[in-house]
C-alpha cells in the first residue's frame, strides 16, 4: 500500500446524503420534518403508555421501550445532517464517531430483541389466551426488557473495543450521513479481518438471526392458531392484534438485510447509505403512525387524554373566575 495514502486521522468528514449544495436545503427540510414526526409521535406514545392505566399491559410496555429506541436511533443517525446544515461543520472526531457506531449498533440490536419479545407476547395472547396474564406478568416483562437492553450493549461491546484499535485510515472522508461501521472499516488501513468476521458471525447471529428466528417461530404458531379459528370475524380480530407489529418487523428486517447481510467487500458504500436512510428515517416513523392510526386502544387513550385536558382547563378557568 502506498504510504502517502495513509494518515493518522484525528477527525472524519461526513459527506451527508448529497454532495450537491443545491439539494442541501431540501434534504435539511425533509430530514427535519421526518425527525420532528418521529420525535413527536414516539414521545406521544411513550407518554400515553405511562399516563393511561388502560395501556398498562405487556404489549404497550414493550411499545414504550420501542419508542425510546426509535427516538434514540433517529437522534443518533439524523442529527449530523441537521447540525451540519445549520453550523456548516460536517466534521466529527474519531472517538465521537466510534461512540456513535457503538450506540447505533447497540440500539439496533436492542430494537430487534424488543420486537422479538413483542412477538412472544402476541404468541401468548393468541395461542394461549387463557394463560396470558399468568405468563406475561410484570416481572417477566421487566426481565425481558432488561435482557434486550443488556444483550444489545454486550453484543456491540467487542466491536466498539476493536474499532478503537484501528490506527490509520486511507482517507478521512466518510461517504455517509453518520458514522456507520461499514464505511469506517472500508477506510481503515489496519487489519479489520477480526471485525469483519465478528460482524458476519457473532454480530449477525446474536443481533439479527436470533431475534429473527424467535420472531419467525412465534409467527408460525400465531398464523397456525389464526387459521384454526372457524369464524372469519375471529380470524380478522386475531390478525388485527399482531398486524401492526408484523409490518414494523418486515420493514426493519428488510432494510437491515439489504444494509448489512452481505460480505464487506461487496457492499457499495454510496448506495448503502440510502438503505441506511430508510432504516434511520422511515422505520422509526412507522411505529407511531401504525400504532396510532390502526390501534383502537391508542386512539381511545388519545381521546381520553384530550378530554381530561379539556376538563382540567375548564375547571381551572372556573376556579380563577371565582
Outline the fold blueprint.
Blueprint: E1 11-14, H1 24-51, H2 58-87, E2 91-93, H3 94-127, H4 132-135, H5 138-163, E3 173-174, H6 181-187, H7 193-227, H8 232-260, H9 269-293, H10 296-321
Parallel strand pairs: 1-3
Antiparallel strand pairs: 1-2
Description:
With about 325 residues, the chain is mainly alpha-helical. The protein is built from ten helices and three strands, in the order βααβαααβααααα. The protein has a three-stranded mixed beta sheet with strand order 2-1-3. The longest helix is centred in the middle third of the chain and has 35 residues, at about 195-225. The model has no long low-confidence stretch (mean pLDDT about 80).
| Structural class by helix and strand composition | mainly alpha
The whole-number mean of residue pLDDT values reads 81
List SSEs in N-to-C order. EHHEHHHEHHHHH
Helix content: over 70%
Rg value: 22 Å
The span between the termini is 83 Å
Beta content:
under 5%
Biggest sheet architecture: 3 strands, mixed
Which parts are unreliable, with pLDDT below 50 for 5 consecutive residues or more? none
User: What would the principal axes of the Cα set say about the shape?
Assistant: globular
Number of helices: 10
Number of DSSP-assigned strands: 3
Widest β-sheet, arrangement of strands: 2-1-3
Amino acid at each position: 500500500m502506498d504510504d502517502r495514502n495513509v494518515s493518522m486521522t484525528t477527525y472524519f468528514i461526513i459527506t451527508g446524503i448529497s454532495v450537491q449544495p443545491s439539494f442541501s436545503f431540501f434534504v435539511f427540510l425533509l430530514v427535519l420534518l421526518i425527525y420532528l414526526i418521529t420525535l413527536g409521535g414516539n414521545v406521544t406514545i411513550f407518554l400515553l403508555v405511562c399516563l393511561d392505566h388502560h395501556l398498562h399491559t405487556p404489549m404497550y410496555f414493550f411499545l414504550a421501550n420501542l419508542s425510546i429506541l426509535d427516538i434514540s436511533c433517529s437522534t443518533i443517525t439524523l442529527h449530523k445532517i441537521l447540525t451540519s446544515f445549520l453550523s456548516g461543520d460536517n466534521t466529527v472526531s474519531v472517538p465521537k464517531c466510534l461512540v456513535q457506531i457503538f450506540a447505533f449498533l447497540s440500539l439496533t440490536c436492542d430494537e430487534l430483541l424488543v420486537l422479538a419479545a413483542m412477538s412472544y407476547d402476541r404468541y401468548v395472547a393468541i395461542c394461549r389466551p387463557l394463560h396470558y396474564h399468568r405468563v406475561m406478568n410484570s416481572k417477566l416483562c421487566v426481565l425481558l426488557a432488561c435482557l434486550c437492553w443488556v444483550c444489545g450493549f454486550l453484543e456491540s461491546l467487542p466491536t466498539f473495543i476493536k474499532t478503537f484499535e484501528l490506527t490509520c485510515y486511507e482517507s478521512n472522508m466518510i461517504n455517509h450521513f453518520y458514522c456507520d461501521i461499514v464505511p469506517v472499516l472500508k477506510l481503515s488501513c489496519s487489519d479489520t479481518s477480526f471485525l469483519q468476521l465478528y460482524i458476519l458471525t457473532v454480530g449477525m447471529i446474536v443481533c439479527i438471526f436470533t431475534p429473527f428466528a424467535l420472531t419467525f417461530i412465534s409467527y408460525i404458531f400465531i398464523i397456525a392458531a389464526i387459521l384454526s379459528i372457524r369464524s372469519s370475524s375471529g380470524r380478522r380480530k386475531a390478525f388485527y392484534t399482531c398486524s401492526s407489529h408484523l409490518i414494523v418487523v418486515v420493514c426493519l428486517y428488510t432494510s437491515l438485510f439489504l444494509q448489512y447481510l452481505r460480505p464487506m467487500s461487496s457492499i457499495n458504500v454510496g448506495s448503502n447509505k440510502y438503505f441506511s436512510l430508510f432504516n434511520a428515517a422511515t422505520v422509526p416513523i412507522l411505529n407511531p403512525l401504525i400504532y396510532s392510526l390502526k390501534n383502537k386502544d391508542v386512539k381511545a387513550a388519545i381521546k381520553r387524554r384530550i378530554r381530561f385536558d379539556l376538563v382540567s382547563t375548564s375547571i381551572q378557568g372556573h376556579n380563577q373566575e371565582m
